[in-house]
Amino acid sequence: MAVSKTESFHDNDEIKHPKECADLRNKESESISSVLGQDTKATNRVLTQEEMDKLDGEVLVSDFKQIKLEKEAQKNWDLFYKRNSTNFFKDRHWTTREFEELKACREFASQQLVLLEAGCGVGNCIFPLLDDELNIFVYACDFSPRAVEFVKKNPLYSPERCCAFQCDLTKDDLRENVPEGSVDVITLIFVLSAVHPDKMKLVLQNISRVLKPGGIALFRDYGLHDHAMLRFKSGSKLGENFYVRQDGTRSYFFSKDFLAELFEEVGLQPVTNDYVLRETVNKKEGLCVPRVFLQSKFTKPSQSQTLRGFEASIMRDTED
User: Fold this and answer.
1) How far is residue 144's CA from residue 198's CA, in Å, rounded to a whole number?
2) Where would I find the Methyltransferase type domain in this sequence (predicted)?
3) What CA–CA distance (Å, rounded) separates 65 from 16?
4) What angle do CA 163, 165, 166 make, to 5 degrees?
5) What's the DSSP call for residue 165?
6) Domains in the chain and their CATH numbers?
7) 200-205: which pairs have CB atoms within 8 A and are 24 or more residues apart?
8) Which of 36, 104, 127, 226 could pair with 292 in a Cys bridge, judged by C-beta atoms 3.0 to 4.6 Å apart?
9) d(Cα 154, Cα 122) in Å, to the nearest integer?
C-alpha cells in the first residue's frame, strides 16, 4: 500500500454521532491520529466473516420511521449545524491536490473558472479555494438554510466571487440561481450519501443541466464497507447500504458499479471511478481503522462527442 501524507484527508469528513463527537475530537487532539497508508484501487477491501455476518443480520428500520426521517431531513441537517456551527468539519485543503481540474479546467490561462459546490455545508471546501486567490467564481448551495447563512457570514464571502443559496437538489431547479450550461466544474463531496437512494438520480439530473458540455463533476464520498458502515448499531439500517445516525441524518455507502450507473443514466460519462483505501491509527487508543471512500470524475460529453456517439450508434444499428 502506498504511503501518503498524514494531512491528505480528515476523518471528520465522516459525521460522528453527537454524543461521540466532543469525546472523539478531544482524543484526536491529545494523541497522534495518523494515516498509515492510502491506496487507490479498482476493487474494494474484503470483509471478515464476522463483518459479513453483522451486515447480513441487520434488521431494517420501520416504514413509519423511514417516512418520518425523509420528511424531517432538512430539519435534522439544520439542527446539526445549529449544534455544531462552523466547528465540526475541517477545511478541505486537499481538494486541489486530488482534483487538478479545480485549477486546470480552463481553455486559456486567464479564464475564470465557474464552480458549483452542491452541498456546500458551511464552506469548508470553497473558502480554501477562494483564499488561494484562484481565478474562480463559486455557486454554493446547501439543503440547510442555517449552513448557507454561515457561508454568507464568512469573512471570505464576497458576492463578486461567490453566490450562496439554499436548495433542495432533489426538487429545486438549480437554473433558478445558476445559468443553464454555465458551470465548468461541479463538486459533490460527501453530499450525495445524505440523499435517499431513490432520489439520487434527481440530484444528478439537476446538476447536469447547469454543467457545460465538456465540463466535469468531481465526486468523493463514503465507499462500501467503510468502517463507519460497520460501526452502526442495531436499528440503524434503512435499506441496502443506507443507514441513519443518532441525530437523524443519513448516510449511504457507494459501490463503484452503483455510482457509475447513476451518472451514466443522466448522460455523464466516467473518467475515473476508484475506491480509496486507507488506514487511520489512533496510537493512544491502539486502534487501526480501515476507511473506504469512493473518488470519481464524470464528464458531460461535448456536442461533438455526442454527435460521434450518435453516429456510431446508427452505424451499429445498420450493421445489425
Assistant:
1) 20
2) 116-216
3) 21
4) 165
5) E
6) 47-318 (3.40.50.150)
7) 200/252, 200/262, 201/262, 201/265, 201/266, 202/169, 202/170, 202/171, 203/118, 203/169, 203/170, 204/262, 204/263, 204/265, 204/266, 204/268, 205/266
8) 226
9) 9
If you count them, how many residues does the chain have? 320
**Which residues are CB-neighbours of 256 under 8 A, at least 6 positions away?**
42, 44, 273, 274, 275, 294
DSSP letters of 14-34?
Answer: SPPPHHHHHHHHHHHHHS-EE
Interval 184-214: pLDDT, tens: 999 999 999 999 999 999 999 999 999 999 9
Show the cell assigned to 32. 497522534
> 0.85 cut: is pTM over it?
no
162-174 pLDDT tens trace: 999 999 999 999 9
Distance CA 158, CA 94 (A): 23
**Counts for the chain of helices (H) and strands (E), in that order:** 12, 11
Return the H-helix or E-strand segment holding 43. none
The closest of 31, 35, 98 to 290, measured between CA atoms, is 35
For 151-165, what is each residue's pLDDT tens digit? Answer: 999 998 999 999 999
Beta strand pairing call for 33-41 and 269-282: antiparallel
